[in-house]
Structure formats: structure tokens, C-alpha cells
Amino acid sequence: MHIARRGDTLIASAPETIRGLIEVRGLGIVSLPFVEAARVRLVIDLVPLAEVPRMPPEGDRVELLGMQMPRLRLNAFEASAPLKCALALRDAVCGVSRS
Fold first, then answer.
1. How far apart are CA 75 and CA 44, in angstroms?
2. For residue range 12-22, what is the model confidence (pLDDT) as tens digits?
3. S-S: 72 plus which of 15, 21, 59, 88, CB 3.0-4.6 Å?
4. Per-residue DSSP letters for 50-87?
5. Cβ atoms within 10 A of the Cβ of 87, count?
6. What is the pLDDT of residue 1?
């Protein structure tokens, strides 16, 4: 992934060699529609289940290119992982605090 800073915004894009491709466990490499670039609003760290806090620390953030971004620590193999991503992204985009 390529990340660039434009003013107070971070922009992410995929390397040309893998644009529109995703590895799906059990299916292999799959082609999907894609966008050239997207604004980065949230960082999701995929961690072992034991490292997912029951209650995330207030203001959990990570620095990227000199900017502080909200962070979610998530275990990708939980059935609720997609919903947790959607809720955290909603909160990041809308400026909702998770307190």
C-alpha cells in the first residue's frame, strides 16, 4: 500500500501490480472493482485475540506521516470483525468518540 500526505489528509492507494486483486482464504486471488485512491480515516491493526482489549483505551491512535489516526485493534477471525470495522469507520468518519 502507498500512503501519501496531502495537507491534513492521508491518501492510500494500492501498488499497480495488485490493484483490483484480493486474496480470499480458501478461494485464492480474486478480481474486484477498486478505486484509485481513498482517504485514510482509520487504522485497523490485526492482532491475536489475546491482544484485543475488552475496552479500548480512550483516544487509541497511531502516527502516520506526522498525523495522528484513530486505531482499532481487531482479531480478523472473529465473526463480528466486519461489523466492528464498519462501526469504527462510521465513528472515525463522523467524529464520534468511543467513550
1. 10
2. 999 999 999 99
3. 88
4. GGS-SSPPTT-EEEETTEEEEEEEE-TTSTTHHHHHHH
5. 14
6. 87
- Answer for the pair 31, 21: CB distance below 8 angstroms, yes or no: yes
Q: Which H helix or E strand runs over 94?
A: helix 81-94
| DSSP secondary structure string for all residues of 11-51 | EEE--GGGTTEEEETTTEEEE----S-EE---EEEE--GGG
- Alpha-carbon span 39 to 42, nearest angstrom: 9
CB of 73 within 8 A of CB of 12?
Answer: no
pLDDT in tens, 39-72: 999 999 999 999 999 998 888 999 999 999 999 9
